[in-house]
């Protein structure tokens, strides 16, 4: 098992849960990074005693430097600091959980170390999947997905690769989605949805941006592009199913008619731990499933009329990297505008569609 870890985005939802898992596994914390949450980062530094800590916001970095001057931690700032944490010597694995496109450069820096990189942010693969995968191959780095859906696919594919590392027996990947807080509603009912309502996810406790993406189904669109690169598969062979219980995290259908699924409680600590312990499994913090109490698992097709972001992601995936990058940038902008109550919920896909169309002119 790997014994030491660096975490990019340690104050976010995934970062905090990664620290829980690392503590459970008794891993040494080598380096941490965050955007500007000085209060929480100071707590983490004092508890886990990393050698290096980076804060993207330079003013926040200066404040942290003053606060932890009694510790031995080296404080860095800006993108250079994020990159240094990503490439920090002494860490066996780097977890990249930085939200948005700003995670691309640190992810590439982590891959260039040739270490295991547990990727928890979608944007690097969505915006530059070809570059990310090529960098991993060039430097011999190991990419292990942390997203519950991609971890599920990864787990389902164990033992299925041929001598070339390919998976020729895959018929399709099936990514599941909870449907978000507005499943079953129509576009008219969504017209006056507030950010507060959109942030009330029925199953998962996540950051604001990814929670809004889940409500629009863009999160699943980003995931299908991510899966396309991670598993080297055409988007036509990736299906999305709404699965409200969030127990089956993904499935793989094979050419012989068999389907393998990965099931677990909706707890991100399970895929995080698997990324850290792979190929081994250890007792985890995740509560085991009680299948009798579950009683039923249900599935339905996504409503792409009400939630067009998923269809837009398929469109961008087929058009290529430029369209995917434009889609992602537009989505980040639209989500921010919605959270700040400058646009309506139903305007998010309109902004994204316009960006995709302009990207191919």
Main β-sheet: number of strands, strand sense, barrel status? Answer: 7 strands, parallel
Order of neighbouring strands in the sheet with most strands: 4-3-2-1-5-6-7
Label the overall shape. globular
How many structural domains can be distinguished in the coordinates? 2
Q: Could you list the spans in which at least 5 consecutive residues all have pLDDT below 50?
A: none
Distance between the termini: 49 Å
Count of alpha and pi helical runs: 15
Helix content: 40-55%
Radius of gyration, in angstroms, nearest whole number: 20 Å
- The succession of helices and strands, N to C, reads EHEHEHEHEHEHEHEHHHEEEHHHHH
- Mean pLDDT figure: 94
Percent of residues in beta strands? 15-25%
Q: How many strands in all?
A: 11
Class from helix and strand fractions: alpha/beta
Detailed description of the structure:
With 361 residues, this protein is α/β, with parallel strands linked by helices. It folds into two domains: 4-146, 3-Layer(aba) Sandwich (Rossmann fold), CATH 3.40.50; 155-265 and 287-359, no CATH class. The protein has 15 helices and eleven strands. The protein has helices spanning 13-24, 38-48, 58-67, 78-86, 104-111, 123-139, 148-156, 195-198, 208-216, 218-230, 269-277, 291-294, 309-319, 321-339, 348-359, and strands spanning 4-8, 28-34, 52-55, 74-77, 93-96, 116-119, 142-145, 170-177, 238-242, 248-254, 259-263. It is globular, with a radius of gyration of 20 Å. The N and C termini lie far apart (49 Å).
